[in-house]
Amino acid sequence: YFDAQYFSVDFDASKIISVKYDIVLGVETTDCKDVKSTDTFEISSTNIFSLTPTENVKDMNDDPKVVEYHVCEGEKVTVTSTYNLPDGLKAGEIYLWSVNGDPINDPHSKSYTISEIKENTTIEAVLDAEPGYETCGGKATITIIVDKKPEIAVRDTSLCAGESVVINVTGEGDKYAWTPALYLSKADIKTPKITPEATTKYSLDVTKGLCTVTVEDIDVVVNPLPEIGNISVDTNQEGQNTLKVEIDDVNAYSYSLDGITYGDKGVLPTTLPIGYNQLYVIDEHGCKSSKLFEV
Fold this sequence. Notes:
The protein is 1% helix and 46% strand.
């Protein structure tokens, strides 16, 4: 309550849109009773001077009272004044722009654009009215935080049919999305386990802050297992056996009779016990097969 005929109220026109005041006027009469008259008036600030960014700039603070603007690096950003110019004035006549404290000397309009933003940036606009025109004056400032794009690298991989592999991904993000989701243990984690039935090409989207990068053409190659054909056994006079193995390319394979020691030729001279024996084959990709044969 104010007990004076005149009073003043200060408020921040950049934050308060309108304020209503109830006026109660008390008058002392001869019979000592108060005669009161009430009225209401409103102060509106319809011409707020602030800066508004384009839609790709997002407020990332959950507190509605605190604005924290973010944008992904490399994007185009335009900041526009909300101030309505008085009749007869052009934007270029009153706006003085600066970026990170450095004045912009080019002709200016109601908006300022950064074609490719790369670092945290503070943009300021100052109203510098021409003589004879009424403006609120002052300045408006906006700070934009630039989210850096995640640096992601993914190596192609290969495996043998029936095996599983975890793809090697370097770099960090907040969210991951693999496509297609075929053969994956999970499609929304950094390094899913993959058990492919056939060679598959993947892509990976990695999001960090407001930035998303895509790594395309990630090859997971499935190598078939060696196919062992006919195995023939010859025995010489000393009782030594010679194995002949039918396979597509004898130079691309190694052979073993114990699964441990491998030789590089398709003819294996050795002495084998009578009965069933096992032949092991490994190819150039490390894929293994085995087959029983009889002596």
